Known about the structure:
- The chain is an alpha+beta fold and 383 residues long.
- Helices cover 29% and strands 21% of the residues.
Amino acid sequence: MYSKLLALAALASTALCQTQNLTATLGATPELSNLTTYVSLFPELLTSLGSASNITILAPSNEAFAKLLSGPAGDVIKANDTATIQALLTYHVLNGTYAASDIQETPAFVPTLLTDTAYTNVTGGQAVGAVKDGENVIITSGLGLESTVTQADVQFEGGVVHIIDTVLTLPQNISSTAIAANLTAAAGALTTAELVETVDTTADLTVFVPSNAAFEAIGSALPDLSVEALTSILSYHVVAGAVLYSSLLSNTSVETLGGGNITVTIIGEDVFINSAKVITPNVLVANGVVHVIDNVLNPNATSATPDPAAETQTPAFAGASSAPLDALTSGVPTPTAGFGGAGTETTPTAESTPPPSSTTNAAAALSPGHVGAVAVFLAYMMV
């Protein structure tokens, strides 16, 4: 009988823990003690904590918070830009409840509560990537930044909290992302063709962006292209009206912004667009997703097919040869920080097109006013 009572007590205790509001859950989680300290500075927020339902919060750990304070603070925090801070923290809240066991080895792209069109033009909310890598759950955000879940499935009555080791980065627009990822030939081509505003502001785009090496492989043909011809080529790399993450790609034909169709072919684990191989998939941008490819697509060679055994695909432009990219890259800003987390950068709005500047992982000590801005950020993060 005594053992049964103990079992019932344990079950009751578990039930109580699972039905705690968010404030109590955070207070009981040592790894979030810095966050709860900052939340306590804002009594007006306490009444709203725990009121959310069916959400997943990606909560930066004490270590992530320490990195934020010890590294470059970023213009957003320094300027106390509450609108952008609000956008950033809503990007840490997933629309739906997702346990760690729901994340599989196939990447999933989960919508967040970030829907403000000043920062995203993705229908249903800007997404984060989530994938299981061995024993770890990895969250991908803007500029290829990866955050690792260090403690999963902290339950509260409105959903679940996953503690992460790095603050997420808002996806930038396509032109800024291209510069940060050292896709400078593509960035220069967009400028030459006067397509920057189109690709940066049009909602729900999928863009297959050739690498610098891909442009260099047909470099001899580039100086002779008219603006109209270059525009036709670039438009053939853009799918409008659909954000096609890798998990949504299949063997099919898809209409492009230029009107012609591209052919998607999946061979084993490789994805090909016509004859071009996807070499970096799922780069999240403000208005959709970018996949980097190893070949420039040719709207006049739509029947080009891949050679899966080839290390590099044959260029789709007959007669073109390798040449320097000076004509495209002249005037394009040099990337000022790494891609994929080696120096995260400030996120412009979905409408703006400046090159990236320093951000969340960015190095000056914060003044008390800036610490207050960070506190606002962290407090809202917990709402």
